[in-house]
Amino acid sequence: MPIYEYKCPQCQRRQDELHPSGQVLSLTCENCQTAMVRQFPTPALRTSSTFLAGRNYDEFHGNKRARAHYEAMARQAGVNPTGKQYFGNLAMFPGDPRAWVGHPDDVRKYCLETGRSCDGAITVKGADPLPHEEGPYRVADDLVEKEVTRRLDGEYVHGQELGDLRERVATELAGAQS
């Protein structure tokens, strides 16, 4: 059974009551003996004007220098951040000027431009992911070298033996172990 809120129009006292849907109780205020009125909550609508209402999250965690730096980056790129909030989860890189949002259309436009998906107050279907090839991947040389150094642990190896170790490590890291 749902809980309904009743309010006294005289003294503003509120009272919650549990009763079946569709039923309205005749309640009298305990304070002033006035008939209480059932309250009907306003639906939570997200319109363009209420899109950012109640969003108190500070993306910069109070760091005024970081905020000023990102605002300067936005202005330099031709984006006015005044009255907007920065959504770091939208940014393609730290300080991305397009991540300053003041209207649902800002999010929609950004998602369409970048091929990203969005689901919630704004829904945009992102681009289909690109197909990827199965099989071994090339691992960056610096990662291979780091693993070779770790395995050697100070031991000196040269020439063909070192080359073979590098090749074996690269193959293992790429997941193409035989």
Give the SSE layout.
Layout: E1 3-7, E2 14-18, E3 37-38, H1 64-76, E4 85-86, E5 100-101, H2 104-114, H3 141-152, H4 159-174
Antiparallel strand pairs: 1-2, 1-3, 4-5
Q: Can you offer a commentary on this structure?
A:
This protein has 178 residues and is an alpha+beta fold. It has three domains: 1-41; 45-131, no CATH class; 141-174. Helix content is 29%, strand content 9%. It has helices spanning 64-76, 104-114, 141-152, 159-174; strands at 3-7, 14-18, 37-38, 85-86, 100-101. It has a three-stranded antiparallel β-sheet, with no helix packed on it. Strand 1 and strand 2 form a beta hairpin. Helix 3 (141-152) crosses helix 4. The chain is elongated, with a radius of gyration of 30 Å. The model has no long low-confidence stretch (mean pLDDT 81).
Number of strands: 5
Morphology: elongated
Strand content: 5-15%
Low-confidence stretches: none
- Round the Cα radius of gyration to an integer and report it: 30 Å
What are its keywords?
single chain, alpha+beta, two-stranded antiparallel ribbon, 5 strands
Outline of the structure:
Helix content is 29%, strand content 9%. With 178 residues, it is of the alpha+beta class.
